[in-house]
Write a structure and sequence with these properties.
Elements lengths: L2 H28 L4 H28 L3 H7 L1 H8 L19 H4 L3 H28 L10 H12 L12 H86 L2 H4 L7
Helix pairs in contact: 1-2, 1-6, 2-4, 6-7, 6-8
Length: 268
């Protein structure tokens, strides 16, 4: 079993686990479940978290260069090791977007657009759920409903930051930091995608202008060549007419000699 083989085998099952995590976590937070329902929800959430932890350990064991792999996947370690951040592990759902890349086209800009839209929706939704979970029961908090959490998340990720709703707990502020970093990264990605699109459009228009100019020059040269050919043809026709007229004149003069009119030359 290789790392790539493991990833190919477990990709869709882990996506299914992530979907279950998302549904259960949303139900538990938005519904504010308590008692036995809360216990069941927590069991399901921990089982999903355990599946991702096992996946991380197996990929680490199967990696060819474990030290390098470990350093490159420190965010995965943090998301697995810190239970308070376990909702963010659902960002693995971005893998689902690979199935829609054909709809987005084969250009890099299409894939970036799909990734940006998907990651933005996922990040806003998950951070809203996490924020509501940690802030709801704090007396000093202003986030007591999912609508208020969504409003806070959009104001934060767009870097607007009205300040009317702010987290007061340590966990809430930590989630806010994650969302702020995500907003900055999103802004940079959108800017890069827009710049790439503008450069591509300028390049296309430049190539079209150069091609149009080349086509115009080619058409002009072709027209000139046709005109030159027509003039040459006219000259050749005129020359042929002159030659025919000279032949006719020469033939007329030859026909008027004494031999042709029946007279005989005088004897000496």
């Amino acid at each position: 079993m290789t790392s790539e083989r493991w990833r190919a085998v477990t990709e869709w099952p882990l996506i299914g686990v992530a979907v279950v995590f998302l549904v259960v976590f949303s139900w538990a937070v938005i519904g504010d479940v308590r008692g036995e329902e809360a216990f069941r929800a927590n069991v399901l959430l921990w089982l999903c978290w355990a599946a991702f932890a096992v996946d991380y350990v197996v990929r680490l064991v199967l990696a060819e260069q474990r030290g390098r792999w470990f350093v490159r996947h420190l965010p995965d370690l943090a998301l697995v090791a810190l239970p308070m951040l376990r909702p963010l592990r659902l960002l693995r759902l971005i893998i689902l977007l690979a199935a829609f890349q054909r709809l987005a086209g084969r250009t890099m800009r299409g894939r970036v657009l799909v990734y940006v839209v998907g990651s933005t929706v996922g990040l806003v939704y998950l951070c809203s759920l996490a924020m509501l979970e940690v802030e709801r029961h704090d007396p000093a908090s202003k986030i007591h409903s999912f609508g208020e959490a969504i409003w806070w998340a959009f104001a934060t990720i767009t870097t607007v930051g009205y300040g009317d709703i702010t987290p007061v707990t340590f966990e809430g502020r930590l989630i806010a930091v994650v969302l702020m970093i995500g907003g900055v990264a999103l802004l940079g990605t959108v800017t890069a995608a827009l710049a790439s699109w503008l450069v591509e459009r300028v390049g296309v228009e430049t190539r079209e202008a150069v091609q149009d100019e080349a086509d115009t020059r080619e058409a002009e040269e072709s027209r000139r060549e046709r005109a030159a050919d027509e003039r040459m043809t006219a000259r050749l026709e005129a020359l042929a007419a002159e030659v025919a007229a000279l032949r006719s004149e020469l033939a007329g003069r030859t026909g008027s000699t004494p031999e042709t009119n029946g007279s005989r030359p005088l004897a000496p």
